[in-house]
Write a structure and sequence with these properties.
By secondary structure, this protein is α/β, with parallel strands linked by helices. It has 14 helices and 13 strands. It is 48% helix and 19% strand. Strands 6, 7, 8, 9, 10, 11 and 13 form a seven-stranded mixed β-sheet that branches. It has a six-stranded parallel β-sheet with strand order 2-1-3-4-5-12, with helices on both faces.
Length: 328
């Protein structure tokens, strides 16, 4: 801990100091959960594999749980038992992110955040030390939400009703859903957007929600946007069960979702850089710890991909499942 505090004070030092920095006995950690979620497994691999490549010991905090309070207790325990945590990436959204980040920062451990764009005012609201919250890698969910709306509207020929499902009503998914709705309303006047429904992160529960939604609107529904990483699975399964065909865009180019896309179970995926973003978070922390000054704000693209793009994205996922299994 003392080493970390000293390092934070000595960032402007000469390159010779950076060259002497040895990460081999230090941990770079990531906090994300549940580990059984296919998207989150890729997040873990992106960060932890890169941490190892950079010479650090990998540290995973989370597990197969959705209990934030339990994870916060894990964080307290890890901090108390280990004084060699060099830096941590936080993958959680909303107030929970700040509660967890503050635990590390108050212990003198630098934190980087990924996935969502950080509102600078939140740092003051949650009393976050700006010297140790060292950056974020954000995806502009309103941009990919709007692109998804345009893609579904055009594929449907500008006619019919479309649905939205989310894992929760959180800031990130709400922004994507609102942008999708705006794209439809502004560009396709003969189309209607249903109010968003919560499908959760559980595939079985989510499939039941989507099935009910389809049954209630099956004569009118022509497409949908699922804003969470399991949406491709829930929508494709429900559509198969009910014999429905439409234009669905889900989230994330995971192995399972790429299979579904290739087989025609969904029309497209928002290909958030779920591996590369977290790899960049590890590199960001390493640069900071070596006395460099990596940029605080970082934005990454999330294009809409179709079946013809599958092979390119499969290459990025080689070995991910096997690697992540060691942390279960």
């Amino acid at each position: 801990l003392v080493c970390l505090l000293v390092l934070a004070l000595l960032v402007p030092m000469a390159v010779s100091f950076a060259e002497e920095y040895d990460p081999s006995d230090k941990y770079l950690g990531i906090v994300c959960y549940p580990s059984s979620n296919t998207t989150i497994a890729v997040w873990m691999a992106g960060f932890l594999q890169t941490a190892e490549e950079l010479g650090y010991q990998p540290l995973y905090i989370g597990g197969d749980t959705n209990d934030a309070a339990a994870v916060e207790q894990m964080i307290d325990s890890v901090i108390a038992q280990n004084d060699n945590i060099a830096g941590v990436a936080i993958c959680i959204n909303g107030e929970t992110r700040w509660n967890m980040a503050k635990k590390f920062i108050d212990a003198g451990i630098p934190v980087v955040s990924g996935w969502t764009v950080i509102n600078d005012a939140d740092l003051d609201t949650y009393d976050i030390n700006r010297d140790l919250f060292v950056g974020f890698y954000g995806i502009k969910s309103d941009e990919y939400g709007y692109a998804a709306g345009m893609a579904v509207g055009e594929a449907a020929g500008g006619e019919g009703t479309v649905a939205i499902t989310q894992s929760m009503f959180g800031d990130n998914e709400n922004a994507a859903a609102a942008a999708f709705t705006a794209a439809i309303n502004e560009n396709f006047p003969n189309m209607k957007v249903l109010d968003p429904q919560v499908e959760s992160l559980d595939v079985t529960q989510g499939t039941a929600v989507v099935s009910s939604l389809l049954q209630a609107n099956i004569g009118e529904l022509v497409g949908a946007f699922g804003t969470t990483g399991t949406s491709a699975q829930t929508w494709s399964q429900a559509a198969e069960d009910l014999g429905w065909e439409g234009y669905v865009i889900g989230m994330d180019a995971t192995s399972a979702n790429l299979d579904i896309l290739e087989q025609g179970g969904v029309y497209g995926l928002v290909a958030q850089p779920i591996y590369d973003l977290w790899a960049d978070c590890a590199r960001h922390l390493d640069a900071y710890l070596r006395g460099e000054n990596p940029p605080y704000e970082n934005y990454v693209e999330a294009p809409i991909i179709t079946a013809e793009d599958v092979d390119v994205y499969r290459e990025k996922l080689a070995g991910v499942d096997t690697y992540v299994a060691q942390f279960s």
